[in-house]
Amino acid sequence: MTDVTTDKPALEPTGALSVETVLSVKHWNEHLFSFRITRPASFRFRSGEFVMIGLPGDNGKPLLRAYSVASPSWDEEIEFLSIKVQDGPLTSKLQLIQPGDQIYLGRKPTGTLVTDALLPGKRLIMLSTGTGLAPFLSLSRDPDVYEFYEQVVIVHSVRRVSDLAFREELEGKWAEDPLVSEQAPAQFHYVPTVTREPFEGNTQRIDKLVESGALFEGIPGAAKFDPETDRIMMCGSMEMIKQFAAFFESEGFTEGSNAAPGQFVIERAFVG
Hints:
Elements: E1 17-29, E2 32-38, E3 50-56, E4 62-68, E5 77-83, H1 91-94, E6 102-106, E7 123-129, H2 134-139, H3 143-148, E8 151-158, H4 167-171, H5 184-187, E9 188-194, H6 206-212, E10 230-235, H7 238-250, E11 264-266, H8 268-271
Parallel strand pairs: 7-8, 7-10, 8-9, 10-11
Antiparallel strand pairs: 1-2, 1-6, 2-5, 3-4, 3-6
Organism: Sphingobium olei
Protein name: ferredoxin--NADP(+) reductase
Pfam families: FAD_binding_6 (PF00970), NAD_binding_1 (PF00175)
């Protein structure tokens, strides 16, 4: 009697893609998961950037999508945060990955959700919905960010409590983190809000938290956005980003880029 193996065919790297191994997977709920993969020695990125990742498509060719890196630039592994879309070309397959599986990783990360695209300031305020949290997880664990800004703030709006991925680490102000555990307790602020379920904290959308001033509670400085001192990053729903981009421009903020730093940035690769 011969053993029957069902090993998946090994992936082949290309000029634009390396092949990495899945190290761990965490399912936060039925439509949200995160996973860590190996990091090639040659892979360099700035905290906040995104990269192409993927799996073989039905035609055998790499099926790729852009994902923000959730781990900081110093981490020896690479982490991602993803939704599960049952009929999504990639996420329908990606949500099934297990440790030991192979995955494609692009060789050239890029993006504008980086400190290089912002002018110097006092407060870095990162507004996110859903998996838009990912690049801000990276930035909030980068020691350089705490040198550049006096206050580092993540605002995370979700529908359900279980959607608050990494809540424990964020509420703990990265106490277990080897590089920012000294600065984060005094400088880092986490503002979660849950809009569709009972929650002991904020339960309004980000725009309402801004209007009421609740977003700024416990954060040194004015209870409003100031283009002189505040630097803004946004990632998440198209609705939130468009609404706040218009709001910030009306308040005198200018949008920044890698070529021309400004007072707020969005990731246009995801917005279109």
